[in-house]
Model the fold of this input.
Amino acid sequence: MIDTTNLYDLTHEELVDLLAAWGEPRYRADQLWQWLYQHKATDFASMHTLPAALRDSLAAETRIGGAEVVRKLSSADGETRKYLLQLADGQMIETVLMQYSGVRRTACISTQAGCAMGCVFCATGQMGFARHLTAGEIIEQAVHVARILETEGERLSNVVLMGMGEPFHNYDPTLEAIRRLIDPATMGIGQRHVTVSTIGLVPAIRRFAQEGLQVRLAISLHAATDEERSALLPVNRRYPLDELLAAVRDYIDQTGRRVTFEWALIEGENDSAEEAHRLGKLLKGLLCHLNVIPLNPTGGYRGRPSKPARVDRFVQTVKSYGIPTTVRVRRGIDIHAGCGQLKAAVIEDGG
Ligand code: SAH
Ligand code: SF4
Done:
């Protein structure tokens, strides 16, 4: 299986070339693309618009995806499902399906196996970096979730690139996956329903501003001084706050798009009134939105989530600077739905 071509790893042009080498016209590649991304076929036999001989060649030389579900967990309320996927080389990644709002069905997908950024409170950061995912491995997670939803009469409406890994550390495959997500002839997800979250890799944010996309950009901020931010997110030493905010300002100027900042509230660490005032001053006047989420506790970090009263005080203080702020409820805690936490739990049980 390893030596066959994973069709999700091919761009549309590469698929055209592959079939052209077998003497097939371009429209056959278009048909196969539809089977892969619109019908989300799991076998070649069902691809009835393709000639039998082509289906045989495809079955012999290619495969539809390379990820296998090795563990599936559902939260007690049934609103969050988490899949641990094993890739062709044995690496494991996580994909989450969230369906707690009325119409929104959101996939949270990974861009790397592990992560090199080493954020101290993050389960993925605590694992270290294994490797980048290919564009195919990234998009396949969305196809997997969409396929499950479709068997239930639902439709995948939103995708967040907030699973394991730092999307902008794996820039080109991530961009290729985003383009396939939003292409009407591929996954057809609305651009504004796709969110990419970064720890703040400044050159990549500047590059992303030039892509001409309307997908949402989220920045993981978590602290309002360089000293504190560097202690939580080591990458801040390379790209400190003033450089990060300058890049975000330029991004907003160039795209006219609102940016989301993410803030995990950690008791006694970044939840004081003074910190909220500093944050308010930092973001005042910026076209942005702040998402606050009480920390998800992880095995490798002693910090605890802020208590509701401190969350409220923090939010009210930041709001007094005119910054639209939302508190996100922690979802799927019972299934380790936080970033990287299922894989960490599976490694701990030795399973
Ligand atoms: N690497 C990217 C995207 C993946 S992490 C990034 O860091 O932005 C998605 C979000 O989850 C980020 O905002 C990250 O800071 C946050 N996060 C990671 N671990 C967390 C934890 N234990 N509790 C709460 N949020 C966490
Ligand atoms: Fe990587 Fe994001 Fe986790 Fe930091 S928070 S270690 S960048 S996945």
